[in-house]
């Protein structure tokens, strides 16, 4: 039997056990800072220094040597390598833990923390260290035009055509570590759920906003439930 192609969506919950905050849990990022102050184009227009400070602090957190891919990240990399059909990993996360775990067929729909974008020439730069309003773009040399290569509220996520194409053709959609509060990602399950011959699975610490739409649901820490689910999938037990 041909094995279906798979789309996996991940959110902040998959990186929680690696030591990175989620957003909406009680100790999440949005309980400490206001979205309006650090994660909108208007906030950047108003106070770029504050926005750079916020993302510089997150970069330092990500570079902390204790922050490493966990068993859930590794299980998804193994699924990509061993599954006979295509596996596309769509992450809302801006950390690089999926890449570090070995995932390659990967879309960062909300951007990447370790990259900057020049709003003057559009160039992307990787790992320029601490970003400031003085720093110049390495391509056009314009100073003060660099912004984090992340998608802020009110902005279009990246590679949406590729994502919708994969959703339209997949037989299995797995959602991991996301609360289902933010669209368009929270609506992906609807794209798959009602198509004949498909299966939709939620793996999360607790039921997400869209939990009832999923046919199959497993709850617990990602480092426990994701490796278990993936090994059963690879063993053909699912
Ligand atoms: N294992 C599995 N799931 C977990 C774990 C864990 N150890 N810890 C927390 N979770 C779950 C929570 O129960 C919650 O449902 O992860 C989810 C995290 O939800 P959010 O904090 O809302 O993060 P996410 O869904 O990724 O946010 C989506 O919102 O703020 C924006 O752009 C940002 O990409 C982000 C988007």
Please sum up the structure shown.
With 238 residues, the chain is α/β, with parallel strands linked by helices. The chain has 8 helices and 9 strands. The longest helix is centred in the N-terminal third of the chain and has 16 residues, at 48-63.
Ligands bound here?
Answer: adenosine-5-diphosphoribose
| Gap from first CA to last CA | 13 Å
Share of helix, binned: 25-40%
- Report Rg: 18 Å
What overall geometry do the principal axes of the alpha carbons give?
A: globular
Structural class: alpha/beta
Tally the helices. 8
Q: How would you characterize the largest beta sheet?
A: 6 strands, parallel
Strand order of the largest sheet: 3-2-1-7-8-9
Order of helices and strands: EHHHHEHEEEEHEHEEH
- Total strand segments: 9
What proportion of the residues form beta strands (DSSP E)? Answer: 15-25%
Poorly predicted parts:
none
């Amino acid at each position: 039997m041909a094995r279906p192609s798979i789309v996996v969506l991940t959110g902040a919950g998959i990186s929680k056990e690696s030591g990175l905050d989620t957003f909406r849990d009680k100790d999440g990022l949005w309980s400490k800072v206001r979205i309006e102050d650090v994660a909108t184009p208007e906030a950047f227009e108003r106070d770029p220094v504050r926005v750079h400070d916020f993302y510089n602090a997150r970069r330092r957190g990500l570079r902390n040597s204790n922050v490493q891919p966990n068993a859930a990240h590794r299980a998804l990399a193994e699924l990509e390598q061993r599954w006979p059909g295509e596996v596309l990993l769509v992450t809302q996360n801006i950390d690089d833990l999926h890449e570090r775990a070995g995932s390659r067929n990967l879309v960062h729909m909300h951007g990447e923390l370790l990259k900057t974008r020049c709003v003057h020439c559009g160039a992307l730069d990787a790992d320029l260290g601490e970003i400031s309003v003085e720093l110049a773009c390495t391509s056009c040399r314009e100073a003060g035009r660099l912004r984090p290569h992340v998608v802020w509220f009110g902005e279009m996520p990246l590679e949406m055509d590729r994502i919708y194409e994969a959703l339209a053709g997949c037989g299995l959609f797995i959602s991991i570590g996301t609360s289902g509060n933010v669209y368009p990602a929270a609506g992906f399950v609807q794209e798959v759920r009602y198509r004949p011959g498909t299966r939709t699975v939620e793996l999360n610490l607790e039921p997400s906003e869209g939990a009832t739409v999923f046919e199959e649901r497993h709850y617990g820490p990602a480092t426990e439930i994701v490796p278990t689910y993936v090994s059963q999938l690879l063993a053909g037990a699912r």
